[in-house]
Amino acid sequence: MSEPDKTQADMIAIDWGTTNCRASLLATDGRELDTRRAPEGAGGLQSSEFEAVFERLVDGWPDLPVWICGMAGSRQGWREAPYLSCPAKLADLGCQITRVTTASGRTVRIVPGLLYRDLRNNSDIMRGEETQIAGLLAKQDDFSGLVILPGTHCKWVEIQDGMVLRFQTFLTGELYSLLATASILRHSVSAHEADIPADHPAFLEGFLDVTSGRVPLVAGLFQIRTQDVLNGAQKDDSAARLSGLMIGAEFEAAKSGGWLEGTQDSFIIGGRGLTPLYEKACELVGIKSQSVFGLDASTKGLWYLAHRQKITAG
């Protein structure tokens, strides 16, 4: 692989998640000139350990503005970046950054997360997804509608005129993992959710059973076990059904929260494994959706925030 032309470099963008970290050297127009990864996610580091990982990650890169999103800004991260309350204009994230100066003299800018409180004072938070949404706006700044971000903690977000009006988190991915690995269903399922084809009959059946009201979720979950014990159901089929039930329950909960009202456009921002399942789910409930790869959106979002700040300051 040829050495990147660092003379074109304008900034460094880092998506620092719970389990891993990706750094990108970006040109002025947002192109990735070089990309590096580190296995040290924020979840496994003490605050005093972040700087060493960071310096190793950017070693040899020019001393440029560094923008970081994700769990590096959490309370247990490198330095806590306070939440910005919704409704919040995404471009304002770049004006609320938390700065860290390293021993080598580099200045690091950590993007804040978002906080939402509903009329009953129920609170919700996000950290990292807000930058992915900013990446979407970098490509389509006039977008208004629904954004769904599948993952361990799936987010549903309402966007209007570049502003996050509200969002809601669903624990779908984490519950799937717990049921598949730590409940009685661990004896009946084998596939990881990301390996399930969106057109798998068991996934479709599980989704429709829950969203139609034919099968209550808590009953449908145990039926996975009985189908295994009594009929020898294939573990891959059981995993697909479990996914369909869980995502179906999420969409039913979203419906009760008013997220499926109207015919608004929607974007799905996520990994290449879960995104097709959510695309199919949207299709089944009559939502037109487009998809964006999450890591690409994070990098583009950091570029967008950095350059919006330049415009505002300049």
Quickly describe the structure:
The protein is 35% helix and 25% strand.
* pLDDT < 50 runs, ≥5 residues: none
Number of extended strands: 15
The N- to C-terminal Cα distance equals: 37 Å
List the quaternary state of the chains: single chain
CATH superfamily of the domain at 6-141: 2-keto-3-deoxy-galactonokinase, substrate binding domain
DSSP helix count?
A: 8
Give the CATH topology of the domain at 6-141: Nucleotidyltransferase, domain 5
CATH C-level of the domain at 6-141: Alpha Beta
Question: Helix amount, in percent?
Answer: 25-40%
CATH architecture identity of the domain at 6-141 = 2-Layer Sandwich
Radius of gyration: 21 Å
Largest sheet: 6 strands, mixed
Strand order of the largest sheet: 3-2-1-4-8-7
Structural class: alpha/beta
Spell out the helices and strands N to C. Answer: EEEHEEEEEEEHEEEHHHHEHEH
Mean pLDDT: 92
Strand composition percent = 15-25%
Shape: globular
Characterise the protein shown here.
The protein has a six-stranded mixed beta sheet with strand order 3-2-1-4-8-7, covered by helices on one side. A six-stranded mixed beta sheet has the order 6-13-12-11-14-15, with helices on both faces. Strand 7 (98-101) and strand 8 form a beta hairpin. The protein has eight helices and 15 strands. With 314 residues, the chain is an alpha/beta fold. Helix 3 (172-182) packs antiparallel against helix 6 (235-256), helix 4 packs parallel to helix 6 and helix 5 (217-231) packs antiparallel against helix 6 (235-256). The protein has helices at residues 50-57, 129-139, 172-182, 201-212, 217-231, 235-256, 275-284, 294-313; strands spanning 9-16, 21-27, 32-38, 66-70, 84-85, 88-89, 98-101, 107-110, 114-117, 123-126, 145-149, 154-160, 163-170, 266-270, 289-293. The longest helix has 22 residues, at 235-256. The chain has a domain at 6-141: 2-Layer Sandwich (Nucleotidyltransferase, domain 5).
